[in-house]
Structure formats: structure tokens, C-alpha cells
Amino acid sequence: MVGLLNLNKPEGMTSRDAVNRVQRLIRPVKVGHAGTLDPFATGVLVLCLGKATRLIQYIQERPKTYLGTFELGTVSTTCDREGELTETGKLGQLAAKDVNEILPQFLGNIEQVPPRFSAVHVNGKRAYQLARQDQDFELDARTVFIESLELTDWSFPRFSLKIVCGSGTYIRSLGRDLGESLGCGAYMTDLTRTAIGEFQIDQALSVEKLTNELIEEHLVPAGEAVRHLPRAITKTSQYNDILNGKHFVHLLSPESTSPTEDSGPIAVYDESDQLVCLAESVADSDLLKPRHVFPAQ
After folding, report:
1. How far apart are CA 12 and CA 121, in angstroms?
2. Residues 17, 38, 177, 284: which is the catalytic one?
3. Span(s) in the chain for CATH 2.30.130.10
């Protein structure tokens, strides 16, 4: 069993719990997930089964879409409703236009400090471990990419945003920083991930209703995880050579350009559009070298 599973994680379940639930159904097949969701967050959680676990990093590279709700005038130790809440007393009379005016400041590549209660490593420990021990530490800002921000609801002092962003973005930190820019503070009350790349929430399976048969029926081919990579095509007759790590010739797909040494991993599909391997270019030749080979379907 090799492929991808699009789950709709419910509130109160950790991402690891979702993995374990699937793991129990399909043992001994290996299961991993791409992109952790906090327990109170809901929505798209993509699981990778079997050798597709090698593709986790490529799913994590895909744009993520969220619907987040935030409350103004209150801050949180965790930047969300799970932490200790403190009213700032600086709420004032804000309007939707005030939020819309500051949103452009948070588009593109921005510097963002992760929440103190996060899984970021600090001197070999997780930040949340140090925060729970009330230790003094600083987290460095990191560059994240936010493609778009759209105000979807204004119910003062709460508002909701549709957020399309890159990997590593903390939506909790975004809410915190928006609140600081407005001068009143804010924290996140709700979060739903509605998409990771092409994996949409309206196509996601309910975790609570999973069965072995349902998993097999809705398993997405592993090749869907790397549709954004440079693409090449190989003949099915070359599969055994590829399986044995031999260099091989390839055809370019209509949307591809000729791969080079610097083009990074190349997704190689067979004539029936099944992922055969991830490969790299061989210097001074038109050949490719297989890096990760996937079972013939």
C-alpha cells in the first residue's frame, strides 16, 4: 500500500493520533504525515503511506491555505486560546478598514518569530518545554512567505482571515503580530487548514469513519506529491534497470524543460502516468540517475 491520504483532522486530536489511527488499520505499512496541526486546529492533514513517506518534504513545500479567526484586545502566552489570556485594555474602536490597511505589511517574505510554545529547537530542547518550565530564552526570527491575506469576516473584536502561505509559517504568530501592529494585541481563537497544494478539505476523509477499505478506495497515487517538480517520462520497459540504480534515458513531458545538474530532483513517470522514481541529472549527459524508486503499481 503506497500513496497519499487526505484526512480532515478533527479538533482535540493530535496529528500523531491521526497517524496512529491509520497505522493500526494497515499494519505493517509505514505511515507519516506532512505538516503538523495543533490539537485544537482542524482540517487537511496529508498522510503518506509506505514508500510515499519519502515524499513528505515535497508535500510540505506546497502552499497551505488556512482560515484563521482572531480576537483583538487580548493576548495569550501561546498566541492562541490554549494559553493564559490577558486583556490589554487598549482595544479602542477599530474597524475592518484598519485591519485591511495593515495586511499588505505581512505579504511576501517577512520575518516572523515563532511562538514561545512551539516545537522549535532551542539548545537541544523544544521551545515549549522551556516555556513550560518558565525559563528565559529568545527565539530568532525566521523568513516565511505569505502569498495572500483576505479579511473574510469582521465581528468586532473578532475577525477572520483567509491565509495562503509557505512552509514554516505560524498562523498564531501572524495573529500576534497583527494585534501588535494595531496597538491592541490579538490571539488566535480558531484555525482550519483548508488546503495543502491540491489537497482540498472538501475531498478529505473523516478520521473517525476510517476503515481499511475506505483507505484503499481513497488512496491518492504517490506521484501527486511531486507534480510541482521538473518532470520526465520513461518507458515501462526500463523499470528493472531503474530499480537496480542504473542510469537511464528519458523523454521530456510537454510542460518540461531539459533538466540540468542544478535543477534538483526530477519526478519521473511512466507511460501510464505512475511515479517511477525521483532522479537527478548525470553530468555531461542526457541520462538520469534514480534516487528514490517507487513500487510499480
Report:
1. 24
2. 38
3. 229-293
Tell me the CATH number for domain 3-62+198-224: 3.30.2350.10
Distances (CA, A) of 79 to 122, 173, 175, 194, 269: 19, 7, 8, 21, 44
Alpha carbon 220 to its chain's center: 17
Residues in the chain: 297
64-196: CATH number: 3.30.2350.10
Collapsed DSSP state (helix, strand, coil) of residue 115? coil
Residue 20 makes CB contacts below 8 A (sequence gap 6+) with none
Contact 42, 191 (CB under 8 A): yes
Ranges of CATH 3.30.2350.10 domains, the chain: 3-62+198-224, 64-196
What's the pLDDT tens digit per position in 110-140?
Answer: 999 888 776 777 777 777 777 777 777 777 8
Asked if the 229-293 domain carries CATH number 2.30.130.10, the reply is yes
Q: Which SS3 state, helix, strand or coil, does residue 73 take?
A: coil
Q: Using a cut of 0.85, tell me whether the model's pTM lies above it.
A: yes
- Taking residue 102's Cβ as centre, other Cβ atoms within 10 Å add up to 13
Cell of 209: 469513519
Beta bridge partners of 74: 87
- CA pair distance 31, 13, nearest whole angstrom: 17
Q: If 0-12 CB within 10 Å is exposed, 13-18 middle and 19+ buried, where does residue 75 land?
A: buried
pLDDT tens digits for 190-221? 999 999 999 999 999 999 889 999 999 999 99
Establish whether 38 is a catalytic residue: yes
- Reference 115, options 75, 66, 72, 170; nearest CA is 170
